[in-house]
Amino acid sequence: MSDRQHERWQRGNRIFWTYRDPDFPDLVDQRPVTVIADDDQHLAVWMAAGTRMLYQVSNDGQDLRSLSGTDRFTAPRAQAVRNWVGSGILAVFQANTMYSVWFFETKPGVRNSYYVNIEEEFTRSDSGIETSDLVLDVLVSPDRICTFKDEDELELAHRAGVFSTAKVEQIRQVAQQAVKDVEHWEFPFNAGYEGFQPDPDWTVPTLPTDADWEFEDVAGRG
User: Fold this and answer.
1) Is 111 exposed, middle or buried (0-12, 13-18, 19+ CB in 10 A)?
2) What is the pLDDT of residues 86-123, one digit of tens each?
3) Residues 6 or more apart from 59 whose CB is under 8 A from it?
4) How far from 196 is each of 21, 47, 93, 190, 201, CA to CA, in Å?
5) Phi then psi for 204, rounded to 5 degrees?
6) What is d(CA 16, CA 9) in angstroms, rounded to the nearest whole number?
7) Buried (b) or exposed (e) across 164-195, using 16+ Cβ within 10 A?
8) Which residues make Cβ contacts (< 8 Å) with residue 45, sequence separation at least 6?
9) What is the pTM of this model?
């Protein structure tokens, strides 16, 4: 089914924000979120503090980031669940764009720290959106200074055969384009979300009733 065949969501609708790894297709990183806006320009969602979320761990329950070398990308995995710790996240997705932008609070009521997550273009379903993470990220400070994050992990993913040389080059080009978008303060950075606050009657969405997992709260942090 084409994305165009899915109706737009309304403010306050609850959907699932899901990442899949093609090498581990039966596992997910899944976050129940509330829709802020959904139009031709973007989809904005809110993930509240304390949200119960699915994520992946090694098959013996270790945080993947604790594994060494290429094992971080190739070791067998299992499904886990935890609560998101810290303040909520406002995330913006744009069609035909290989990154999402997450707005973080730097102080109460001010979301002017940005996390640019490089990922595949998202697809829609009736229940939410789905994409795949591409490892490299860009951190944007309140004074608009950009810093690349996880370049070492991108190299490990390349060595592990997760990404081809051409794919790594594409990922880096997307990250550079994101930096240019920051420099020119393009959408969604100029969208006015810095002062966003969730509607007071919004409650925390829950995971699907059929969700299951083997491990709980392994990482213990957001």
Assistant:
1) buried
2) 889 999 999 999 999 999 999 998 999 999 999 999 99
3) 75, 76, 77, 78
4) 31, 13, 16, 13, 15
5) -80, 120
6) 12
7) eeeebeebeebbebbeebbeeeeebbebebbe
8) 15, 17, 33, 34, 35, 36, 90, 91, 93
9) 0.94
